[in-house]
Amino acid sequence: MCATEQNTTGQTARKKRIFSGIQPTGVFTLGNYLGAVKNWVAMQEEYDCAYSIVNMHAITVRQDPAKLKKQTLDSYALMLACGVDPQKSIAFIQSHVRTHAELAWVLDCYTQFGELSRMTQFKDKSAKNADNINAGLFTYPSLMAADILLYQADLVPIGEYQKQHLELTRDIANRFNGLYGNVFTIPDPLIPKAAARVKSLQDPAKKMSKSDENPNAYISILDEPGSIIKKCKRAVTDSDTVVCYAEGKDGVNNLITIYAAVTGKSFEEVAREFDGKGYGVFKQAVGEAVAEHLRPIREEYARLSADPAYLETCYTEGARRALSISNRTLEKVYKKVGFVKPCL
Length: 344
Ligand code: TYM
Fold this sequence. Notes:
Layout: E1 4-6, E2 12-14, E3 17-22, H1 30-42, E4 48-53, H2 55-58, H3 65-81, E5 90-93, H4 99-108, H5 113-117, H6 120-128, H7 135-150, E6 155-157, H8 163-180, E7 188-190, H9 225-233, H10 250-263, H11 267-273, H12 278-305, H13 308-337
Parallel strand pairs: 3-4, 4-5, 6-7
Antiparallel strand pairs: 1-2
Helix pairs in contact: 3-12, 4-7, 4-13, 7-8, 9-12, 10-12
Residues 19-23, 31-32, 35-36, 54, 57, 144, 147-148, 156, 158-159, 161-162, 165, 196-198, 207-208 line the site of ligand 1.
């Protein structure tokens, strides 16, 4: 995280920093992977990266404790299986690093009720969990701001659906800096050009989400090839037959987006490839390409899951490095707001 590189004038320049996180609320979907995690992996060479399994965010909706514990460890293994390299990046579990909760409290005091009330995710989740609209669900974005600002992140790779939270993070950071000087780096979102919004296979007006009640609506990245192909074949499209990216063809557009992301082809190339072939052939090809793309991840996940001792070493070291960096920011913040430093 502290690595430096030589710039053209021979001076050492700080590498840009990246922070991102994912909730351990189930196996990652193809949406999580294409919209976020795939890009995390690609950035490790060029940037100093910190990636977290954000289990503290997950308890804003009621979780079964045993299941959350298992899903947290599984998600960590999955993050590494996707290609996050714990030697190159800081890969950690959020609750292991106490600075996140501590900075979140301070930021809560610099975040307005009105700002939090406008968050779309809060509105959606409180509608879905009407019997448990807890304070944590409401202040979720200040914890997310703490995650990012603790590492002085320059860039935050996210899918389109997290953009509003990032804008609020910037507002909170600017407000704090306005009062106390330059404490926080103002982060920019990094939203992929392709696959920033992967849609449900059953209702392309909605996002692909692991909490969808219909398992045919999403592809989990550990799904078996047969199941992936079946889900793609059943994907909702339209009554037309031409494979092309166009207004009003949301289901087909979604499949083209997915196919282009896993094959590296452009939308035009995809349209040419399936010219005159119809939806049946196209859907089969999408399923096969996705299954093939995810195969090495499934295999690596099986290998890593069989080695819990290795995973423990990785997340312990990740937590140690994350604490060391984030504590510097926290100490600065505590000083700025007027907290007395103890001689412990
Ligand atoms: P989460 O766990 O819902 O999703 C993790 C990442 O996956 C992206 N994503 C998608 N991208 C494209 N299409 C989809 N259908 C799709 N579904 C999910 C999300 O945009 C996200 O980038 N609040 C965050 C987790 C978080 C975080 C952070 C992220 C906590 N602290 C700090 C960045 C920085 C969340 O719930 O993501």
